[in-house]
Amino acid sequence: MLDDKIVAIKDQPSPDEDEVLPAHTSDSDDKSITDQVGNLVDDVRKLAEAELEYYRTKLSVNMAATKTVLLLFSVAIIVGATGLVALILGILLILSHYWGPVAATALLTGSALLVTTVLLNMAIKRARKLPLDENDP
């Protein structure tokens, strides 16, 4: 089997010594380099399109997750506010048996306003400490 291949190689005619084939011409080199640069540009374009599609897909997945988180956060705030209202009404009903409806309402309203004032003052103090501009000390 190996002998057949060796014989086949020996049977091929060798090029004549008078015929000299040019190894490469400048036109073929220019076309080759031009083709290579064109192929490189096409490959870069395809890579950029693939990267763009990847980041679009990643962003859409992140947006879907963000929407879910915001929806859950909104529902939690609504349920928490509803629970807070129920607590206030429950305390109001309990206190109205001991102090009467007017005094219980005044006590709860005053307490809620006091807590709101304290929390707002804390928020304002912390907001004033925030650096709003990088050049400000």
TrEMBL record:
TM stretches of this protein: 69-96, 102-124
UniProt lineage: Bacteria, Pseudomonadati, Pseudomonadota, Alphaproteobacteria, Sphingomonadales
InterPro entries cross-referenced by the UniProt entry: Phage_holin_3_6
Keywords: Membrane, Transmembrane, Transmembrane helix
Region named Disordered: 11-32
Protein name: Phage holin family protein
Top-level taxon of the source organism: Bacteria
